[in-house]
Amino acid sequence: xADFTEDQIIRYSRHIVLPxxxxxxQKKIRESKVLLIGAGGLxxxxxxxxxxxxxxxxxxxxxxxxxxSNLQRQILHRTADIGRPKTHSARDRIIELNPDVEVVxxxxxxxxxxxxxxxxxxxxxxxxxxxxxxxxxxNDACVLADKTIVDGSIFVFEGQATVFKPxxxxxxxxxxxxxPPPGMxxxxxxxxxxxxxxxxxxxxxxxxxxxxILEIGEPLIGRLLLYxxxxxxxxxxxxxxDPDCPVCGDNPTITELIDYEEFCGLRPARC
Amino acid sequence: xxxxxxxxxxxxxxxxxxxxxxxxxFTVGExxxxxxxxxxxxxxxxxxxxxxxxxxxxIFLNEEDVRFLEGLNTTVKDGDEISIIPAVAGGSL
Lengths: 271, 93
Known about the structure:
Chain A: Keywords: ATP-binding, Nucleotide-binding, Nucleotidyltransferase, Transferase. Chain A: One of its GO terms (molecular function) is sulfotransferase activity. Chain A: It comes from Candidatus Hakubella thermalkaliphila. The complex is a heterodimer. By secondary structure, chain A is an alpha/beta fold. Chain A has 11 helices and 8 strands. Chain A has an 8-stranded mixed β-sheet with strand order 3-2-1-4-5-6-7-8, sandwiched between helices. Chain B is α+β, with helices and mostly antiparallel strands. Chain B has one domain (about 1-85): Beta-grasp domain (Ubiquitin-like (UB roll), Roll). Helices cover about 15% and strands about 25% of the residues of chain B. Chain B contains 2 helices and 5 strands; from the N terminus they run E-E-H-H-E-E-E. Chain B is globular and about 30 Å long. The interface of A and B includes residues 62 and 185 of A.
């Protein structure tokens, strides 16, 4: 405990008292580097709890600015932040909560050109992005770089969460080999979302991230958690690694990043 | 065999907003065909032009993905639960 200050020992005392965490576990949390994809509905609660828990470095990737319509659920941002880059507003809120955390903002979208360089510095990726091209891009990059993704997604009153640990469990492509054609699945913007829902799924992502950092319990590897808010029902389904998966299978055909806009049908294939 | 079918939010407009309906059949494929009879529109959403299950929708029998059982030919028992799980991307928006 020698290298924690007295204030830090008090700040993290409810962790340190846990036999599963202790001073040793709190040190693991402090040494961990977590990358948040999106500082929105899922990234807000996930990032806020991870910061409170004392994660050493939090990278935040988001290209958007805070909009009034975000504030019904994106709890890292305030009314006064409207118009500011989300990564800046998220950084301010996190530092106010816990100045021990090093926040690294990436005010950019994730692309085939920058993803490998960004994820390289992190142990774990918490995915709260809102579109299919980024989900496939991040999946392929994390399989290639052997980084674990704590995945979450939401739709109206339902949420999904799971952990993709490359070559140990399935990846996103094993679960969904192909994206839906554009327009087939409406976005939150079109369909709406009850604001608390991302709070619940994002908090589950934060919990799974901490379990992975601490190496305790049973992470959601190979299991898909479903939450139905209207029925108040949680279910767990088994998901498996597909040996024929083009990226994490036994004979992968995708060995470098591709054009994900094109893969998701958002841009016609180039001749 | 009567089984419960869990309907995901994006498809609940086909079932008058019901999140769970009953359907009958001896195999997963038969249950889904019965679902189409009672609530037209499912076939188009679940299958592609070649009659294959769409790759962004998974069908689970109880807690197992039918792709890793016997697919649409997997037999069902009374009281089983089939879940239709589509890919959703919402998060940061």
